[in-house]
Specification:
By secondary structure, the protein is mainly alpha-helical. The radius of gyration is 27 Å and the shape is elongated. It has 19 helices and 9 strands. It starts with 5 loop residues before the first strand and ends with a helix. Its main location: cytoplasm.
Length: 524
């Protein structure tokens, strides 16, 4: 874990880059004096309210449907401990370390805003736990995406109390109390409002949204590259990528995708041969409409990023402490804004995968590939080539289509009908993470097929005879880099799974984009 970079948490929100630095890069966290002063001022409002006889939700009452009970001062510390313990009710597999770190960091961001009423020492302990590389054990199931990601955040709060289990920086899961003691961190003793303030936010779904946005941005560029390689291998025309054509339908994502493809195809001697062997007036939709589909996904991603930026600037809690000292109940914890875009991104990811699979299938079909051998096999019949690689890709696409069914349209009432409409945003985020992984593999299979097709094209010529033009310089760079990364080339049948795994690693690690950009310069 790289502990060199530092993220300063103030009172005015954080950026997506900050989230990625902490969640994935292990960045250290520093708390600004401004944040600590603001937190201290808000805490004084809470302490004043706690001393009054009138009940205040979360300060001197129970929670949810139990908010009707007034809690006497001597029971309030127990009340705050109890909400953490009782709400830490997750089940199922452990959630990924990067998700938990994002979840904790975003909760830290909210309590640093001065709107939650916690003491500064709670803030400091949260930062110390993250900086020590201690990661609470959080489970897959437990959040309905309303009243915040309650169970996941409760498991994180348990670690602050020195209870439950957590993963140490060495990757071993141990009692949280032991890990805190080893790092010289004193467990938190919760006071009024603090237990509730640690639980009541959209931090889990937001963290996963931020990471998905980063991953999908890279995947859209990768998909533009593989679409261009497939167009080239199919002898398609690059004229449909001309900027003036996309200017007449001014969707920004579409223009970006078309420009990316045009850069990758620059200098190709293969494009435009669609009239040679079996004349075509137009290329198939999966080739010709690649910028329109990928571009729509890009525009969806831009909208999702805007929602994420707004949420990153928010302070999500209930009740909230306002600047004038009022403590007001609200519904800002409802995850609908985040849940909707998480679902929208899953739809866009499924469609991007679907069009990529159609191009792969076209490359393998001798009746539609314009001179390429069946299934890109060396000796078709004896060899099966990439036949089953496309099966795997099709299975992934089918899974992505199932994952595109929205979670946010579902709602299961909870808390004795007090919380009678929920967002299911956590579930939307979890399935989007699965969809992003699936899309990565789909793009990897298209890369594998297109790279082999380009090698075969260079051997036998554009229309199946010698003398065709050369592969584009960017295409050649991608093929060479893929081979250097362990992605096998053309030849007889062999064990395909290692080749596909190497292709996936090449895409996931950024090697595909880096190889293309070594020739094209930066792509959008």
């Amino acid at each position: 874990m790289d502990m060199q970079s530092t993220v300063v948490v103030g009172s005015d929100g954080v950026t997506a880059e900050d989230v990625l630095a902490v969640a994935r890069g292990g960045a250290r966290i520093e708390l600004s004096e401004q944040a600590l002063e603001r937190v201290g001022a808000a805490r004084r409002f809470i302490e004043d309210l706690a001393a009054r006889p009138e009940p205040v939700y979360g300060v001197s009452t129970g929670f949810g449907a139990l908010a009707v009970r007034h809690i006497s001062p001597e029971l309030r510390a127990r009340l705050q401990r109890n909400i953490v313990r009782s709400h830490a009710a997750g089940m199922g597999p452990r959630v990924e370390r990067e998700v938990v770190r994002a979840l904790m960091f975003l909760r830290l961001k909210t309590v640093a805003s001065g709107h939650t009423g916690v003491r500064p020492e709670v803030l400091r302990t949260m930062a110390e736990v993250l900086n020590a590389g201690i990661t609470p054990v959080v489970h897959e199931y437990g959040s309905l995406g309303c009243s915040g990601d309650l169970a996941p955040l409760s498991h994180c709060a348990m670690t602050l109390l020195g209870e439950g289990d957590a993963e140490g920086p060495d990757g071993r899961v141990r009692p949280a109390g032991e890990l805190l003691a080893e790092h010289g961190i004193a467990p938190v003793e919760l006071r009024e409002k603090e237990g509730l303030a640690l639980l009541n936010g959209t931090d889990g779904m937001l963290g996963m949204l931020v990471m998905a946005c980063a991953d999908l941005a890279a995947l859209h560029t990768a998909a533009d590259i593989t679409a261009a390689l497939s167009l080239e291998a199919l002898l398609g025309t690059e004229r449909v990528l001309a900027p003036e054509l996309h200017a007449v339908r001014p969707h920004p994502g579409q223009a970006t995708s078309a420009a990316n493809m045009l850069k990758v195809l620059a200098g190709s001697g293969l494009t435009g041969h669609h009239q040679d062997d079996a004349p075509r007036v137009q290329d198939a939709y999966s080739v010709r409409c690649a910028p329109q589909v990928a571009g729509a996904g890009r525009d969806t991603l831009a909208h999702a990023r805007q929602v994420a930026e707004r949420e990153l600037a928010a302070s999500v809690d209930n009740p909230v402490v306002l600047a004038d000292g009022r403590v007001e109940s609200n519904g800002n914890f409802h995850g609908a804004p985040v849940a909707y875009v998480l679902d929208f991104l899953a739809i866009a990811a499924a469609d991007l995968a679907s069009i990529a699979e159609r191009r792969t299938d076209r490359l393998l079909d001798r009746n539609r590939s314009h001179g390429l051998p069946p299934f890109l096999a060396q000796d078709a019949g004896v060899d099966s080539g990439l036949m089953i690689a496309q099966y795997t890709q099709a299975a992934l696409v089918s899974e992505l289509k199932r994952l595109a069914a929205p979670a946010s349209v579902d709602s299961i009432p909870s808390s004795a009908m007090q919380e009678d409409h929920v967002s299911m945003g956590w579930s939307a985020a979890r399935k989007l993470r699965t969809a992003v992984d699936g899309l990565t593999r789909v793009v990897a299979v298209e890369l594998y097929a297109a790279a082999r097709a380009l090698e075969l094209r260079a051997e036998v010529g554009a229309g199946g005879s010698a003398g065709a033009g050369a592969v584009s310089p960017a295409g050649r760079a991608v093929v060479d880099a893929a081979r250097a990364a362990g992605v096998g080339g053309a030849g007889g049948d062999r064990f395909l799974a290692p080749d596909l795994a190497a292709a996936e690693a090449f895409v996931r690690g950024g090697g595909l984009v880096a190889a293309a950009e070594s020739v094209t310069g930066p792509l959008g």
